[in-house]
Amino acid sequence: MRTEDLIKALDADAGSKAMPLRSAWWLATAAAAAVAAVVFWLTIGPRLDIMTALHTMRFLSKFVFTIVLAATAFALIRALSTPGASTGKAAAWMIAAPLLVLVAVVLELFVVPEADWGTRLVGTNMMVCMTFIPLIGIGPLAIFLWMLRYGAPTRPALAGAVAGLLAGGLAATFYAAHCFDDSPLFVATWYSIAIAALAALGALGGRLFVRW
């Protein structure tokens, strides 16, 4: 069978599902957010001074980074789960969140004395960050991997990695409400490592469980 014929067959199979793939992704993401919320509230919950923190730019900027990551990963994974769909534009938008973090880090380096850079980067709860972003994200990742099987991705490992980024962005959004380390240096380092761990796990899951 030619590649073009295989893609058409997979696309027809994806389109024959009881629920349209586009609607299924929205439903799955809502379910993933609910799972993440339950884990977040049952484990760590929001920081005690969150009402005060809401008036600070550093605290709010964390949500900009994580939500942009989740939104761009959502767009890309929907495209990847549909055979023959164009992924170039969605993939290009994936640079948005890293660029925003980079700009914030540069600004931080300008306004914070060099002697404080190391303290801001290490923070006070990096191990909590490294533990709870994956913990909050593992349930959503499982949902997204299952959704990839509902669709028909032709690049399962890549799709799984993007599922991990989506789960990581979602989990990091919840975790940011708890985190007392608001420095972009901290976010760029430890949030990224925790999210990358979910992306790696997603790539492995895609390779093992989302194959055709």
Automatic annotation (TrEMBL):
Stored Pfam families: NrsF
Record-given protein name: DUF1109 family protein
Lineage here is: Bacteria, Pseudomonadati, Pseudomonadota, Alphaproteobacteria, Hyphomicrobiales
Q: What is the organism field in this record? A: Mesorhizobium sanjuanii
InterPro entries attached to this UniProt entry: NrsF
Annotated membrane-spanning segments are 24-44, 59-80, 92-112, 124-146, 158-177, 189-210
Keywords assigned by UniProt, alphabetized: Membrane, Transmembrane, Transmembrane helix
The reply on keyword Transmembrane is yes
